[in-house]
Each structure stands twice: as C-alpha cells, then as structure tokens.
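Rotation project, supervised by the postdoc (A.L.). Task for the rotation student: set up a whole-complex structure prediction and record inputs and outputs verbatim in this book. Inputs entered:
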Amino acid sequence: MFADTELSILATGHLRKNLFPPATSLKRILDFVGSQLPVWRDRDDRLFAVAEDELTDQLCAHLLSASRTEKFDFLQFRRETRDQSKGSRKHDLIVAPNLAVIEVEGRKHTEFDILFPLECKRLPTPVGRDRDEREHVYSSKKSTGGVQRFKAGHHASDHRVAGMVAYVQESDIANWSVRVSEWIDGLLHERVAGWEKSDHLVETIQDKRLKFCQFLSTHGREKKTGANYTSSFLD
Amino acid sequence: MSRDASHLIGENLFPSSAFKSDQIDLNKFQVVQERDFEGPRSAKNFTPPLLLVRKHIGLQHAVWEDSYLAFKNEIVGFAGKSDDTTKLKAVDRWITENRKALQAFVALSSSRLFKKKATAIGASDIRALPYDDGGSLEISDNEAIIAADIVDYQSDLVRLGDDSDALKKSAENALDEFARVYCSQINVVYGLNALVPLPAYFWPGVVCQPFSFGDASSVDWSGADKLRGRIDRLLKEQRGSSINVTRIARVYDDRFVFFIKPNRLRYWLRSIALRDADETLSDLRLQGY
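Outputs recorded:
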C-alpha cells in the first residue's frame, strides 16, 4: 500500500579522479555571477545609482531573479550577512544553497551557511578622511581593504574561495587593472607584512564589448594558505 | 429562509456540467424552476458580460456576453459593466495561458481541495488567484516543471494513492524526459564534460538508467540479469509487519552515474529529475568537484 511505504535514497561510489578540475562547481557559480554583471548593469529598468550599497542591493536582486531563470535555482543570494567566524563583520553579498544541501570539502552547507562571500567596491574609492584610494586592495587607515581583509582572515576565514566585484565609475578597466597592480607592487616595495608577488591579479576573462573583466588571484593568509579570490571588474 | 428570486425564475440556467473544457455547452442549459432560494443574489450578478469560473481544480472558465444567465454556486461569476468585456477577456486569457501554474497554486493553498469531493475548490480559492494585468507570472522552466507535476501527478497521488497514474503507470515512456531534465540541470554546472543519457536496462519491476560524463559509449550489461535477486533486495525492505521501505540508488563509477529505481512513473517524473539533480550536485561537490 502507498500509505505504508517509506522512501530511502542510497548514494554510493565515486567518479574517477580528474574527471573535472577541482572545485568546478564553485568556479562555475563565480562564472555565473560574472556573466550576470553586464546583464544587470545594462537592464533598462534598473534605476541609476552611484552608492555602493544601492548598487549591491540592485545586484543582489538581479542575481536572485537570474538564478531562477538560468537554472541556478539551487542557490540564493543575500545582502549584509554576518561572517560565520567573526560575527561583528558583515559580507556585502553572499552565495548560499537554496534548500538543497551542498557539501564542500566534507562540510555540509544548508541555506543557513555561506557557500562563499562576495565583496563589492567602487573604483575610484570615494574620497574621505578615513579612506585610502587603494581600498580595493589595501587600506592603511583601517582593516577594510578588499583583499587585505580576506588575507588577514577578517572576512571569510573559513572559506578558501571568495569573490570581489569592482564597480568601475571613472576611467576604464584597463587603467584600473594597472593601478591595482601598482598598488600591490607598492605594498611589496614597502615590505608590508604578508604581501607577496603571488598576490597579483591574473586576468582570466576580458570582454571589451561588454566592458567586463575577470581576474583570478591566489593569496597567502595569516592562518591558512592557498586561498583563491576571483575579482570581477565591471565598467 | 426563502428570499425574492423573481430575477431568476424562468431564466436560462448554466449548470457547472455545461463547461466543456473552456467552452460553454449551450445544449446543457436548463431553465430555473420556481422554488425556494436561500441566497438568490441580485440581478446584476447574472447580467452580462460575465466571467464564469468553475469551482473545480480544472479551473474551467469562459466569458459570456450574450444574455442574462443564471448559474449555481458551483460557479463563481465575475459580472462586469457593459464596457468591461475587454478586461474580463484579459482575465479569461490569463487563466488559459497560466492554467498549470494557477492550478498548482490552488493545489498548494486550497483548504477545500482533497476534502469530501476531492476535486472541488472554494470560491475563495478562485478569488485568491494571482493576476497581473498586462504582466507575467515569470515562471522559470524548472518551476513550470514542478507546477505541471503537482497538477498532473502529485495531486492524484495524494488523492488516489495506489490508483493514481504515478503508481499505476510504468516508467518506460517517461525515461527520455527524465533524462533530458536531469542532464540539462547537471550540465549547467558540469557542462564542460557534458552528461549524456545511455540506454536503460530493465529487470522485472526495476529500471536502471545510466548516464555518462563526456562519452556516449554504452555500458556492458553482460551478466546483469543475474543481479536481479540482489537488486530486488537492495530496493525493497520490509520493516515490521506493515512498513515497506522502497530504496532508490544512485551509483557513481568511473565516468558513469546509474539510477536504480522501481519501474513506476512516480520515481521518474521530471520534478523528481530536478530533485535527483540537486542531490547529484551535492554528491559531486563532496567528491571534490
């Protein structure tokens, strides 16, 4: 009888090694986020905005809708979510499972967990007494530099993969790519602790038509090493 | 208590059985006989233009413009002013174009469906239907699949159990669509080495549907028939005297994924393919991918 029947699911075995590059799914999710940036920027119904919070609110709403229509509906996107290691810090934008339980490196992620965080910064950095123009990478005035806080473990210390979005509001991506590289060279020249040549960003996608670039960087961290950072620049 | 029903007596009566899909079958019209009425409403409720919606999970509906028309309480009528016909036709079209999603909405929210008369719904269910004038429900492909399976199969599974199509029909005709939906969802993430379906293998009462990442060459099934007893034991377990446990198995080997499940439609619906895909994505991440 149907009413007397219970269901159980058995999953067993392994796919062969090297069938896919490691962490293919996380990379694919980051690619999805990157691919949606120009779509979001160019939406006719998007209200003009300049402030970082307003832009990120809009981006979050767009990613939520796009995840449904582009079959990434196993994900959800949320704003201003507390860091799971340092509750006093908040992430600009996070990616989390949507009902489906996702396992990464033996750790189960439910909808309450962060799959990986995204930090969003404007270029140029707004001028202010406590602002550092290098804030995308590093701030000498507080610990809010985009890459800096990830390296120091102030953000996402329990994640090996994270992302960063740059809203380019003046000049163009090529110029900012050079500037970011110069800032990192400057930190190396000043011998700022923890910064190495390998912290430089490597361009992985350049789309001049869509005014979009993606970079990959691998950063040593104070407590863990080998963490990856994907930076997306949107002009 | 009887109320004045002079606006009904002798008028054309539209019984709910006169709905032929979304058409009105004029041959089934009756005439309202003189008797007591508890809630006769007023004449303007029966004055065209009317949008008539049957209080049934089928959401049969039609716009009536011709003449004064009485109807019983199995139908919800939306009476407009003489210049409201265009608006009523827009709602009529909305129900037609979004029928599956709206039916799923009712199936999930109705407090009356599945009670007593199992397919009857309430007037409040119809009034609660979402409507966006000139807009769209913006249902995604996956949401449309889930809505369709709720309406076409899961509702009857709840209502009829062993007598529902989901349990009476075998899986054979559903396998192609199951495989298409499953591969489509997996390949959103792992399309680099795309998953493709391979021909299924059948034991009595059991189906094994294999898939392969990146290579469509077939599986060597020699000797598989000898596994019949083991497969039966794997998928069926009796707990106590009355509880049967039906197990479904997902097996990963080399570049293959095998689904082994009972040969009933219930386990091979498109919505189940979406759930299986979610779980597969979780498995593959656990395997480091």
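Student's summary: The mean pLDDT of chain A is 86.
Supervisor addendum: The CA atoms of residues 123 and 176 of chain A lie 8 Å apart.
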